[in-house]
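[09:14] KT: can someone run the structure on this one? pasting the chain below
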Amino acid sequence: MSSLFLITSAINTKFGVFSSSLRLGQTIQTIESIRDFLPEAKLVLLEMSAIPLDNEQKQVLKSKTDFLWEFYGNNYVQKVFQDNRWSVVKNLTEIKCFQLALLRLLQDSTLDNIHRVYKISGRYRLNQSFDPKLHVADKICISERRPSELPLEIPDIPFAYMSRLWSWPAEFTPIIEHTFSKGFNYVSQQIDKGLYCDIEHMLYKYLPENLVTFIEPIGVEGRLGPNGELVKD
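[09:31] RB: done, structure tokens below
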């Protein structure tokens, strides 16, 4: 079964505890972990930072992936980057850029002959719990839903889906794009009203529940950008 990985990335950023060089190294580990498990998979790196890659970074990443799609020239990305709240910048930028990437997939030939699409967060890596055989059901495969840790900020969404690694059948891509389109509008409206919503709660709200199945553990690990804490799903 042919696979495509969408790797969300922000190598150069004003946020977090890791330098750009460390973030690049961690992203290379992400790529290498995918190659270890699925060497024939197609890899698309989605570079979402408002700070462009330098030539050396770009050449390294191009040499290790099939496609490098950069979003620093997007006016919305530049506008949101001026906000000094890490969570706002990360969530709005990633949701918008991911939706644009899905539209691109639907409009060009990148998905030709692809059966399954994975999303993995850059700087995280697949670990020994990852099993691609568990991702073959005609479902959106994601980690078990978790009770919201933000019940006061997001009282109407009681659960969240961890989004470091998940996947879907390629023919579901229009559904995923629609999810992110609706989700972007919702999260933007929440933030405009002085409220909050992140990607994880947005996914729980908008992914069609009847199409979702859980894999636990799903097989990914890495260190959180804000504090360097190691997490595993």
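[09:33] KT: thanks! The longest strand covers residues 3-9.
[09:34] RB: yep, looked fine to me
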